[in-house]
Amino acid sequence: MDIESLAEKVASGDRRSLSRAITLIESGRADHRKQAVALMERLATRPEAPQALRIGLSGTPGVGKSTFIEAFGMMLTGQGLRVAVLAVDPSSARSGGSILGDKTRMEQLSRDPNAFIRPSPSQTQLGGVARRSREAVALCEAAGFDVVLIETVGVGQSETMVSEMADLFLLLLAPAGGDELQGVKRGIMEMADMILINKADGDLKATATRTCADYAGALRLLRKRPQDPDGFPKAMTVSAVEHTGLEKAWEEMQALTDWRRTSGHFDGRRAEQARYWFREDVKNGLLARLDTSEARGDMARLAEAVAVGDMTATGAAQEMLSKIGG
Amino acid sequence: MDIESLAEKVASGDRRSLSRAITLIESGRADHRKQAVALMERLATRPEAPQALRIGLSGTPGVGKSTFIEAFGMMLTGQGLRVAVLAVDPSSARSGGSILGDKTRMEQLSRDPNAFIRPSPSQTQLGGVARRSREAVALCEAAGFDVVLIETVGVGQSETMVSEMADLFLLLLAPAGGDELQGVKRGIMEMADMILINKADGDLKATATRTCADYAGALRLLRKRPQDPDGFPKAMTVSAVEHTGLEKAWEEMQALTDWRRTSGHFDGRRAEQARYWFREDVKNGLLARLDTSEARGDMARLAEAVAVGDMTATGAAQEMLSKIGG
């Protein structure tokens, strides 16, 4: 594969080349990996590389996430913006499934020439999901998309992962009674820059307004973050079906982003994220040395020797470590 | 140091040699580590190595843990058993403090010739606390102690660590109103084989009985474990001050242990723990390669190159991994 020409086509915004590039970074083959690293370096070190707004979006099934992304994405493309949608689903690494298995969930957006939708990679190793997702985000950014939406499921670990690759983190919730407020983990609440209560329409409108007030109250109890202006994190109601509240939510996101850019927190956070991913990559790379078929065989054999008492865990670990070398 | 003679003295039950052996395994020096591994291998692979009952004990400050250990330990030595008490406190790795800083908290037990009390090692690295604690348990076992009590604080991570090195896990609680029941994390509840409500004496006796009933109810809601007979996990009241309920609790512990020995779950669990610690040791050993002063310097330099955008996280990680070798 000609990496130089692929990089140029990705940088020109060609969606088919972007797809090919993402397939390349998702590959587990060693020669593909080498090409992928070269591609990423080439794109990242261009002068004047474009910068997208990276928006993480989490929400449990049933809150209307696909409908929201379709409506929100169409609103953005309607304003002349180019929008990429990526899904990050670590659970699909085990199940082989995908939360964006096909594009039929976002029929309109998938036909929009200013939009790009990419399902979660399936059958990759858990540690690899993070790196591949992060590289896919960087590729979309290099391809000149203005907004990259990174969708994930509400299971905790994936939220942390996505918030470490996003500039903004949105939590999408459904209208609910007061008791159900407890269902959102405090850790996820603390990651959110904005909580959007979807389905604020029809019979659910009043409930949505109450739920929004409840969360606004809960957010006020959290420690204010130094990188945020007054009023953030913020709770708002939206209706993806009736297309209400979406422009308002987008304005708030832009206001928050502008504030962070001016204060230097935007760039500071990106630098911090880059350091974080570097350290994670090193750790995962080290642990991947246990993931060759030879190492797995040694591990299994030594673990059995330890289990039956022929060796101590410490002694067996030393033997294993000397085999791996370094 | 003559490792062969130290191993013999430890195996003969000499408490001073046991202390010296534990100091050796706690040392961070490379030559000490080598000797420690040799010592552990030597003791572990003896024919007819004795086996202790390893009891993990957790409880937040204020529940009367020291008083309980002193009373429970004295009861055991009164029955002719030899008892070792170890403390595991990962937080002391940071603070340099220790939850068993001196033996004055257990004045009687510390003077008992059939007891051995060892405070938590201080100023060790977090990952190292687990390995050192586990090796200290094995040394006490090799020294012929019948019961090894492993005390920890109620902070979650250390409970998991201790339950992975114990045959039985006890949770010690104080009498409390119904609202406070929520304070015990579900994960810690699920680890417990027995919950002991301490301070069932004087004014608190009635409250202790009610608290015990509450926890008994909560335990029944947990999934029954296949390795347990009916009635376990179990909640009981004790009074460390009045020495009541301790014999009963010990009888229940023995009954549970006998049941697990007969069913094979006792040995099965030990084998599973050995495999677990082997894998943990290998992982920690790999990650320790990042903990040399040279590696720390390389990491810092590359992290900065990534943060300012001169390198991608992926590329910098590859450079770092090739430096570490392997």
From TrEMBL, chains A, B:
<protein>
    <submittedName>
        <fullName>Arginine transporter</fullName>
    </submittedName>
</protein>
<dbReference type="GO" id="GO:0005525">
    <property type="term" value="F:GTP binding"/>
</dbReference>
<dbReference type="Pfam" id="PF03308">
    <property type="entry name" value="MeaB"/>
</dbReference>
<dbReference type="InterPro" id="IPR005129">
    <property type="entry name" value="GTPase_ArgK"/>
</dbReference>
<dbReference type="GO" id="GO:0005737">
    <property type="term" value="C:cytoplasm"/>
</dbReference>
<dbReference type="GO" id="GO:0003924">
    <property type="term" value="F:GTPase activity"/>
</dbReference>
<dbReference type="InterPro" id="IPR027417">
    <property type="entry name" value="P-loop_NTPase"/>
</dbReference>
<comment type="similarity">
    <text>Belongs to the SIMIBI class G3E GTPase family. ArgK/MeaB subfamily.</text>
</comment>
